[in-house]
Amino acid sequence: MRAPGIVHHGTRRRRAAYRRAVWSGAEVLVTAGVVLLLLVVHQLWWTNRQARHDAAREVQALEREWKAPGAADAPSTDPGEGGNGGEGDGGDDSGGAQNPSSRERQTTVNSAQSGPRWSQAYAILTVPRLSLRVPVAEGVSKPNVLNKGYVGHYKGTQQPGQAGNFALAGHRNTHGEPFRYINRLRRGDTITVETKTALYTYVVDKTLPQTSARDSGVIHSVPRSTVRPSYGYSEPGYYITLTTCTPEYTSKYRLAVWGKLRSMRPR
C-alpha cells in the first residue's frame, strides 16, 4: 500500500517537464506577438513615413528641375471656351466640349514625343481637397513606383492633356497611401497635373465606388465599367482616372474617380 503524501520522482519530473513546456510555449507566443506588432508598425507607420518623405523630396526635385528664372506665366485657356465647344462643367457623358487650341495640342504632342522612362517620375499630381501633392511615375510597379509613395501611370493610357484617358493608380493604405481618401472627392473638385511643359487642370465628374479588380474598362480611352456599365462615359473626351483598392486594408475591389480636362496652361 502506497504511503500518503509521498510524491515519486517520476511524477515530479513529469510536472517539471509540463511547466517547462508551458513556459516555452508562452515565450514563443509572446515572441510571435512582438514580431507581429513590429510588422504592423512597420507597415502602417514606417512605410508611410518613409514613402511620404521620399515622395516629397521627388516633388521638390522636379520643381527645381523645371524652374525657369524669368519665365512668364502663360494665360490659362479653357477648352470649353469659344469655337464649337460647350460648357466645361461635364453636365453629360460627352467629352466633346473639350477642344484644346492648336497651341495646346502642339504642347501636348511635343511632351508626348519625349515620353518618360519606365518608373521615372515626370509629373506632379495635386488634389487640393485632399491636401495631396505627389509625383507621378511611369508604370504601376509596386517596388519601383507605388511603394515609393508615388502615383503610377498605367502603360497604354494617354499622357496628361492628350485626348483619351490619363489613368493613374495609387496605394490606399501603407507606403504613403496617397489615394487613401479619394472616396471623399466630389463632383467639381479640381485635380491638377504639372509637367515640364504645361499645367493641366481636371475637374472631378464621376465616382465608381466599387468594381472588380479586373475591370479594365475603367481605364479605357473612353472609360466605362465592364462590370457596372451604368458607370462611365460613351463619348471620346479628355479624361483623368484615379484608381485604388477598396475597402481599406484589402485589395479585393477597385474604386475609381473620373474627371474631365478643363484647361491647359503651357509653362
From TrEMBL:
The chain crosses the membrane at residues 21-46. The keyword Hydrolase applies. This is Class E sortase. It comes from Streptomyces sp. R41. SUPFAM superfamilies: Sortase. Keywords: Hydrolase, Membrane, Transmembrane, Transmembrane helix. NCBIfam families: class_E_sortase, sortase_fam. The active site is at H171, C245. GO terms for molecular function: hydrolase activity. Residues 65-115 are annotated as: Disordered.
